């Protein structure tokens, strides 16, 4: 019987990778808080395109880290500053959209949730996402002695974590949606989520 899966040399770095990903990528940030806020404000069906965009954008950041493109971005004069400004502008727009969203029961087709492009753009324009993912990617070796296979395994596992983390934050937001049919409660929750999004983003960039 093959006991390789019980080898501490394999499961310990895997556990370290998953733990680091859960703590760093799963903690509140512009991407996760925005997804929770959108899920709460627009429900799961209208929020899925935005979630797909965030997931795709975060995986794109992961691939950029694996390919060494972070060094290229940081080498461009004011490259990180430009990304930060673009991200902040979109987050402020998103916060306004969430804060002014009508109650779920009173929405029509005109109340459009952010889409795939918005989620993707926010994910790839967040400078700290590159450094957070780079710290996880470079900080753990899963397959010693084979850098190519090690990178492939980490990309696959971290991509899975990205999907699971974003779905968890989306479901957390959607769980609030049952209270958003009351106009007063909906306004309070939407304003609170928008304020949390701005506050978390400010903490990330300051």
From TrEMBL:
GO cellular component assignments: plasma membrane
Membrane topology: Multi-pass membrane protein
Segments passing through the bilayer: 50-73, 80-99, 129-145, 152-172, 184-203
Keywords: Cell membrane, Membrane, Transmembrane, Transmembrane helix
Record-level Gene Ontology MF annotations: amino acid transmembrane transporter activity
GO terms classed as biological process: cysteine export across plasma membrane
Pfam families reported for this sequence: LysE
Localization (cell): Cell membrane
Protein name, UniProt field: Threonine transporter RhtB
Species classification: Bacteria, Pseudomonadati, Pseudomonadota, Alphaproteobacteria, Rhodospirillales
């Amino acid at each position: 019987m093959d006991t390789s899966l019980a080898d501490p040399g394999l499961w310990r770095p895997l556990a370290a990778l998953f733990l680091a990903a859960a703590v760093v990528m799963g903690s509140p940030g512009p991407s996760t808080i925005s997804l929770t806020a959108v899920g709460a404000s627009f429900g799961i069906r209208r929020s899925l395109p935005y979630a797909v965009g965030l997931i795709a954008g975060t995986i794109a950041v992961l691939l950029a880290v694996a390919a060494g493109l972070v060094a290229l971005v940081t080498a461009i004069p004011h490259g990180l500053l430009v990304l930060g400004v673009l991200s902040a502008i979109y987050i402020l727009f998103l916060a306004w959209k969430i804060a002014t969203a009508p109650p779920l029961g009173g929405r029509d087709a005109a109340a459009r949730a952010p889409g795939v492009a918005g989620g993707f753009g926010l994910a790839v324009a967040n400078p700290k996402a590159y450094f957070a993912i780079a710290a996880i990617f470079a900080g753990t070796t899963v397959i010693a002695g084979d850098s190519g296979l090690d990178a492939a395994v980490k990309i696959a596992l971290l991509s899975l974590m990205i999907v699971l983390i974003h779905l968890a934050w989306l479901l957390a937001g959607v769980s609030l949606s049952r209270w958003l049919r009351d106009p007063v409660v909906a306004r309070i929750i939407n304003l609170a989520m928008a304020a949390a999004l701005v506050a978390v983003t400010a903490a990330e960039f300051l």
